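2024-03-11 09:14:02 INFO worker-7 job=invfold-0412 stage=load source=structure_tokens
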């Protein structure tokens, strides 16, 4: 990067200028906490996509966009005397120090803890500290504070992980596979009976059990589905290109032709 090097202080000043009632940006002045949430989610997903593709030039750019969302919320909080950017940073540092006693001895920023903790130790300590924080907020249930706004797969996985902390869980992946087969059988019965509400409920159970299986296999359900969708997209685009080269019409193919073309596209991509 070349040119003027700006700081976080400069970024905060830019945000103040954008929200200046007299000389600010009309669009930015119209925004509030709720209105910029969709932008925040979009920027986070764009960052995730850049990371998945190892497109680090865009990771750099998207990180800036995500940071801008944080600064925007902080400016809105400051204007309403709710909180400031500095308060957000201070609270975050306090929380990170509190949740990492294995690094910050005696709760001090420069305190050095004796010995090395394992990942399992860290996980147990982390959940124990978070539970104490929930207790302090009168959120005593195991499933307390699991955000409703999480994507469905991520939220299902988090709920299941919390339940597993009190041993409400399947013994192993094989048990989950058996449960998945049971749920599929129930879905087939609902489909055969053409019971719309039952089909929806049973389909939900199938999806929930698939998330459970992903967790037992040590994989993130959200990422697994994103990867599968990406694989489908690559194969479908290859089908489109093959048909286009032959000046054919993709929508005019028979099911047998689709099956053959799909296998060919899969083989072509696997050879690369």
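2024-03-11 09:14:09 INFO worker-7 stage=emit residues=272
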């Amino acid at each position: 990067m070349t040119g003027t090097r700006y700081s976080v202080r400069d970024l905060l000043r830019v945000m103040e200028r954008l929200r200046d009632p007299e000389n600010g940006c009309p669009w930015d002045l119209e925004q509030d906490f709720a209105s910029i949430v969709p932008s925040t989610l979009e920027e986070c997903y764009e960052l995730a996509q850049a990371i998945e593709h190892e497109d680090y030039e865009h990771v750099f750019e998207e990180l800036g966009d995500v940071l801008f969302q944080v600064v925007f919320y902080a400016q809105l909080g400051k204007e309403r005397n709710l909180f400031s950017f500095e308060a957000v940073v201070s609270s975050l540092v306090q929380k990170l120090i509190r949740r990492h006693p294995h690094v910050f001895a005696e709760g001090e920023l420069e305190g050095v803890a004796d010995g090395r903790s394992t990942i399992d130790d860290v996980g147990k300590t982390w959940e124990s500290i978070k539970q104490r924080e929930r207790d302090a907020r009168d959120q005593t249930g195991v499933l307390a504070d699991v955000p409703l706004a999480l994507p469905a797969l991520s939220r299902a996985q988090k709920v299941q992980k919390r339940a597993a902390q009190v041993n409400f869980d399947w013994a192993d992946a094989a048990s989950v596979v058996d449960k998945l087969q049971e749920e599929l059988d129930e879905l087939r019965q609902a489909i055969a009976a053409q019971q719309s509400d039952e089909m929806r409920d049973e389909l939900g159970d199938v999806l929930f059990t698939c998330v459970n299986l992903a967790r037992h296999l040590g994989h993130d359900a959200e990422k697994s589905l994103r990867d599968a969708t990406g694989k489908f997209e690559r194969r479908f685009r290859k089908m489109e290109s093959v048909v286009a080269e032959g000046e054919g019409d993709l929508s005019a193919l028979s099911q047998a032709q689709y099956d053959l073309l799909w296998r060919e596209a899969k083989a072509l991509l696997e050879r690369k």
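2024-03-11 09:14:09 INFO worker-7 stage=report msg="The mean pLDDT is 91."
2024-03-11 09:14:10 INFO worker-7 job finished
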